[in-house]
Each structure stands twice: as structure tokens, then as C-alpha cells.
Amino acid sequence: MREINLNIKKPKTFCGIFGIYGAPNASGYIYYGLNALQHRGQEAAGIVTRERTEDKTFFNVHKSTGLVADVFKDDKILHDVLRGDAGIGHDRYSTTGSAESRKNVQPIVVNYRKGNLAISHNGNLTNSHKLRDELTEGGTLFQTTTDTEIILHLIARSQKETVVEQVYEALQLIRGAFSLVILSDDQLIVARDSYGFRPLALGKLGDAVVAASETCAFDVVGAEYLRDVEPGEIVVINDEVIQTGKLQSLFLPDIPKQSRHCIFEYIYFSRPDSKIFGESVDKVRRKIGKGLAEESPVENDEDEKLVVISVPDSSNTATLGYVSQSAKMGIKVKFEIGLIRSHYVGRTFIQPDQDTRDLKVKVKFNTVKGVLKGRKVVIVDDSIVRGTTSKQLVKLVREAEPAEVHFRVSSPPIMYPCYYGMDFPSERELFANQFEGDIESMRKELNVDSLAYLSLEKLLDSVPVDERRNYCTACFSGEYPTDVEVNSKEEFEANINEAKV
Question: Could you tell me the CATH number of the domain that includes residue 288?
Fold first, then answer.
């Protein structure tokens, strides 16, 4: 789901999706799955369930703005309203369209000639502007400003006979990143773009089949991870699958030889207890931290007190890798909890305006002054986007009177926008781009004694790569794995001043 928003400090992304088929009281499992995926979107949440009677099929819907626990705080919603044995859910973080519009909250539901249809989408369509214009000129009426609705209209417009055929035809027309769960009257359809930009996994819960953005959603409901949805794969889950236990799937044409998974999922966004792209996030993140220590150690004499602190929570695991590798290299170093995070404040990059974000950075973090005073301090963070949060954190740490402050970043400098679902600012708003990648200039701006980023080469050495699995690094290198249509770039820039989130 793409909704342009550039007022961010951390990279922000897409959404979390969850689907289940063949489970009594499906809404309860979706609710807990969405809770586990809350880090992927904190603006809004929604659930759609399928309820069947002897002569009719109903779609029950409840969605609204707010966190999952707030949207579904009334128990009667799950027990009395969202009845059914199949359903899909969505945690929303907007990347296109107005974040304030309740109409944009997913799942989006329609009724057409084949019955009911609902969709939850994680990703960005790079040709949405062109497709929307074509559909509008053909008489299509849009109810939302999201690119997700385009997919529904393409499915409904298809003259193919079955829903699966219609989905297959529609997905060949869209470009960019998409992980989808689509609910119809008779089946759950799970699909992923041909490059596999966004994670999407399949699991089993008793006789039921589940799908989710990350495997941490399986853990909370007690589901067993089966495998990832392959790039370009469309998995069809229906009564026959539940009865036989055999998954049915088909593949989109022209699938590239290697995927282009978003490498930033490993760096920042996915939970460390998840398995994505076939590998443990925790394992990869620790390796990234070790690589950062190898490339950019902070030396320590015997009489100096060197402490390493993370920016909780997303850089915790990389920091542990940094500390362990530093120790192996003979550097006397100690991991300390120098920043305390309030878990009652949402992620700063998701906040809708600059003043709110600036205040929430101060509310969100505080220093443990006794740990930092008089020490040589190394701050490890996963990324720097706009630089605002980093400058404020350094200021907080400086107020604790450390002897020195060093900043280490477990990703390369972010130089370019992302068109595949990770909503980075335009080039002119990116911290590293403003300084043309000059480390010394950035160091002075942050007011630290030293600054170092992980190299792209070391990052790629830290992630699993094989004959079929590779990564998108466009935000670092500017090398986009697909053509990004000019109108998409123009649309991206045109929304800069209009973005609300």
C-alpha cells in the first residue's frame, strides 16, 4: 500500500498483512497476528472475515484508525461481529494517499459479479499513476486514494471466468512491490511480486493455513512456519487444500533469475525474532554489527572507559554484534544501557508532523547519566534518514557529560528514495544526500567525535545470497532493479508538500 509521506526520520514502510483460512473464530487469530505485526504500521488496522450460512456468504468488516488494541478494544467486535472461518487483516502505514482518510484503511472490500472480494496490500506500485488514469478514463470510480484499490478494479474488470484467473491477469499489469492477501467467497489467495521485494510467509495452524508478513505473527498464534511465498507465486487456499493438506499455486510469467529482496528489512524494519527471506533476522543483524566493528572500531586505551550503547529497540541486536566483535579484536569495551526508551510512544518516523515528532523524540528517549558521564561512548544506530533524530540523540547524550561521543551506523548512507514501499524522503531531504556523502561534514553536523557507516560491500557480505536470492540496495546505490516510470517519480515529488504522515 503506497501513500507518499516524506516527513520522516527513520525509514518508514508499508504495512503488515495477515490471512487465515479454515479456522473457527478466525478473527481472534488475525487480531493477535496483527498485534505481532504492529511495528509495521501504527496508523490504522482492519479485519475482514468470511461467514457462510447454508444459502449465503457474508463478509464482516471492522476497521478504523489507531493501534490494533484500540481498534478492537470492544470484545464484541471479535466475537459477535467478525464471525467466520477465514479472513484477512492489515496494519496500516500509509505510503500513498491521505493518511487521515478512513476510506483508505484496509482491508478494502468490494462486491462484484463474482461475489465478495477483500484485499490487504504491503508494498508500492510504481505504475499506479498510469493505471489509475487509464481506469478513470474508462469510467472507474475510486473510493480511496491508495494504489491498493487499483488492484481490486483490475481484478473486477477482468473477463476471465474464475477469481484466480482474474487475479493472475491483474497482477501481470501492475509493477513494483506487492505482497497480497486476497479473500473471496471461496478462497484465500496469497501473492507476491516477481522480485520478492517484501517478505511473505506461509504457515499451518492445525488444519488451517495462515499467511503473514513476518513469522513472529505465526509464533503468537501457535502456527508452524512452512515456507516463504516464492517471488512471483500465487498461492490458492480453499476447502480442497484444507481437506488434502496440499497447497495449490501458480506463477507469474517472466520471473527474474534472482530476487531483489529489500535489504532494509534485515537492517531495521523486521522484528529480530522473525524469519524473513529464509533467514533469521537476529542472526543477520548480529553479523551486520560484527561487520561494522571490523570496519570501524573505536580504539580504547587501557585507562579509558569505553561503552557501547544502542538506540533501542531496532539497533539492539546489531549493537550486540558490534560489542562482541570489538572484544574479539582485543578492544576493551562494555555494552551498557545508556538510552532508555518509553514503549508507550510510537515509532518517531510514523508521526504525522514535524512538531509532534520532535516532541516525541524527547519523550521517547532519556539517558542513564551515570553510565555515560566521563565515558567514551559509542552510539550504534541502524540508519540515519533525515538526521533530526540522530542530532537530538547526540544532544541528549552530550548533556550526560561523556568524554567523547562516537556514532556508528549499521547501514550505508541512504542517498536515494525508495519506490518499492520503504518511504524515504526525496533526495534533497536525505541527510547523507544533503552532504553528498561527505562523512566529515556529516560528523560536524551531528556534533560527534567520529562517524562511520557500514559499507555496502560489508552489508552484502552479511546477508544470505545464493543463485536465486539477492537484494535491492537502491536507497544506497541508486541502482533500481526495475524501471521506475517517470510518472511515478513525478507523483512522488508532487506529494511532498501534500503528505500528512
Answer: 3.40.50.2020
Q: How many CB atoms lie within 10 A of CB 161?
A: 9
CA angle 41, 46, 47 (to 5 degrees): 130
First to last CA, the chain: 14
Phi-psi region of 65 (alpha: psi -120 to 50; beta: other; left: phi over 0): beta
Identify whether 187 is part of a domain: yes
Catalytic residues: 15
- What single DSSP character describes residue 265? I
List average pLDDT for each run of 10 residues in the chain, which is 501 residues long: 37 78 97 96 95 94 95 95 98 60 89 96 92 93 92 96 97 96 98 97 97 98 98 98 94 96 95 96 98 96 87 94 97 94 61 54 83 96 93 95 97 94 80 96 98 98 94 95 67 41 28
Residues 6+ apart with CB under 8 A from 135: 142, 150, 153, 154, 157
Cβ atoms of residues 211 and 191 within 8 Å: no
- Domain identity same for 130 and 25: yes
Do you know the residue count of the chain?
Answer: 501
For residue 229, the domain's CATH number is: 3.60.20.10
**So what's the pLDDT on residue 5?**
34
Whether residue 160 lies inside any domain: the answer is yes
Rounded Cα distance, 66 and 237, in Å: 30
458, HSE (Cβ side, Cα atoms, 13 Å): 20
Distance CA 61, CA 87 (A): 10
- Structural contact between residues 62 and 49, judged by C-beta atoms closer than 8 angstroms: no
Query: Which one, of 84, 73, 109, 106, lies nearest residue 183 by Cα?
Result: 109
Among 172, 124, 184, 117, CA closest to 148 = 124
Q: What's this model's pTM, rounded to 2 decimal places?
A: 0.89
What pLDDT is attached to residue 393? 94
Query: What's the Cα-to-Cα distance from 204 to each of 106, 190, 244, rounded to whole Å?
Result: 24, 14, 13
- Cell readout for 478 is 541508486
- Residues 347, 238 within the same domain: no
Residues 6+ apart with CB under 8 A from 339: 309, 310, 311, 312, 365, 366, 367, 368, 393, 396, 397
In a domain, 44, yes or no: yes
Claim to verify: residue 385 and residue 347 sit in the same structural domain: yes
For residue 430, CA distances in Å to 34, 260, 400 come to: 31, 23, 28
Q: What are phi and psi of 73, to 5 degrees?
A: -70, -25
Q: Do 368 and 435 reside in the same domain of the chain?
A: yes
Residue 332 · residue 338 · CB < 8 Å: no
Task: Identify the pLDDT of residue 7.
Answer: 36
Distances (CA, A) of 414 to 106, 194, 418, 440: 30, 25, 10, 16
